[in-house]
Every structure is written in C-alpha cells, then in structure tokens.
Amino acid sequence: MSDSDPTPVQYDPEASRYDVLECTGCDNVVLALGRDDPPMTCHGEPMERVSDPEMRVKPPDVRQVLLDAFGLPKAGLDICLCVIGEGPLSANEVAETLGYDRSTVTRYLNELVDLGLLRRSELNREAGGIVNVYHSVDLERMRRETLVGFYVWAGEAATLIEEANLTKRDYLRENHERDLPDVFWDRFPDE
Amino acid sequence: MSVTRRDVLERLAATTEPSGRTTTVAALAATLDADEAIVAAHVDALVACELACRHDDGTARVTVTGDELLALDIEGAVVVVDCLEADST
Fold first, then answer.
1. Are A150 and A166 in the same domain?
2. What tens digit of pLDDT does each residue of A6-60 get?
3. Which domains does chain B have, with CATH numbers?
4. CB distance from B71 to chain A under 8 Å?
5. What is the ipTM of this complex?
6. Of chain A residues 92-151, which have a CB less than 8 A from chain B?
7. Which residues, 6 or more positions from A133, have their beta carbon under 8 angstroms from its beta carbon?
8. Is this prediction's pTM over 0.90?
9. Domain enclosing residue A97, as ranges
10. Local structure of residue B71 (DSSP, 8 states)
11. pLDDT tens digit string along A112-139?
C-alpha cells in the first residue's frame, strides 16, 4: 500500500453505520444495514455482533464501488445525477452541461436503463420517426434497487472470498504435488 | 416558487387547441404568472426537445411528442429526450 492510499478502516461494532453479525452456533456471518429490530436470528437464537475484528480494509471509494458493482463509470454517474433534476432536458443539453459527447450521453442513458435506474419510452415524432424519452424510476425504488443490486454484488464477492478460503483448505488437505499459487489461480483463471 | 419547464409544457398543452391554435410566450407567462424571459427560455428548451414548436410569428404550440410525453405514466419526474435515432434515420 502506498503512502497516498487512504487510511485502512476496521469494523467498529459500536460506531459503524452497519452491523456484522455472526451466529454463535455455526459459521453464518451476515451484514445488516438499517434497523435491527427485531434482532436477526440464526438457529432460533439472536445473532451477535462481531466483537473482535482484526482485519483492516481499504475504505471504499464511491466511484470505484459504482464502477465495480454496476459497471458505471463516473460519466454514467454524472449523467444519472444530472437527469435527477428538472426536466424535460434534451440529450444535447445534458451533453453541454456535463461536457460529454452526445453519443456518450446516449450510451450511458441506455446503460442506466439496463441497470434499471431509468426507463425508456418511445414517442412519435411529429416530423416522422420516433423520439426516445428517458425517465427515472421512483427515487425510493432507485434507492432499493441500487442497495439490493450492491448486495448481490457483495454476495458474489463474498462467495469468491469463501471459495478462495476453501481452495486453500482443500490444498492443505489433499494436494501437495503442485504449488498452492498454481492450484489457486487454476481455480480462478483470468477472464 | 419559480415556474418549471414541465409547468410550461402542461400550460402550453392546455392552451393549444385541437385546431392547432397557438399561444404566445407573453400569454403563457401571464397565465403562469411568471417572468416572460424565463418562460421563453423554457419554451426554447422544449422546442429543442421537440416537445413544442415555435412559429415565425412568435407563437408556440405543443407537438404530438409533447402531448404523448404528458400522457406517459411516469413514476419519477425526470425526462431526457433523445432524438439521436430519429436524426440518423
């Protein structure tokens, strides 16, 4: 980690805006955001906050999170934020306001539709042909969709971490003919 | 509270009769109790979106596209109009 990297963070059960809970009877670990009332249970018993975190992690950057989880680079986020304003706007107006090419605006508008953050309708053009109109979903629904979408991404990432841990465990049990790095990266080949 | 672009579009649609009769920006501003320059700027933006059209005599009316936009059941208030595909055909 270089000197310019941000200070690592560690889960603080008392101060964090989220909870990491674990079951005392099994290896179930969950992330809880929001109220914990009634408390989450596992095996019929309330789960407990992780109280002895040791690992520090690099604090997430919102641009990188949106890029990794949704494939949405800053330009897409800019467009999403710009259109959550007062419309109707023309695509040219959005492009001029943000300093992007018109084609870039159109591309990200369509990506935002694919993500479920915008909807697209086709309207008849008076001179013939069609006009694409992009409108937002309800902002509360947008909040839920992005949170659930991120949790899906986080679940996929957690599954990869768990697979990595199991790969190391399996290696120690069974396979000593090859080096661990070879076994590990065979399991997780480059895309 | 200042007049919004959608307010102008809705009022324009309400004052455009099926016969195609148009209204002036000054009349629109008067019915909206808004500054004429602000209403004119909103009308220009609506014309750029092809939601309204303006005639040489300065009058304006809502377009078919504008009427269809107002009829959409939109959850959020945000609308971006992109005529790129239509332009390229």
1. yes
2. 788 888 888 888 889 999 889 899 998 877 677 889 988 999 999 888 889 999 9
3. 5-88 (1.10.10.10)
4. no
5. 0.81
6. 92-94, 102-103, 105-106, 109, 118-119, 121, 123-126, 129-139, 141-142
7. A88, A120, A121, A122, A123, B69, B72, B79, B80, B81, B82
8. no
9. 63-137
10. H
11. 899 888 889 999 998 889 999 988 888 7
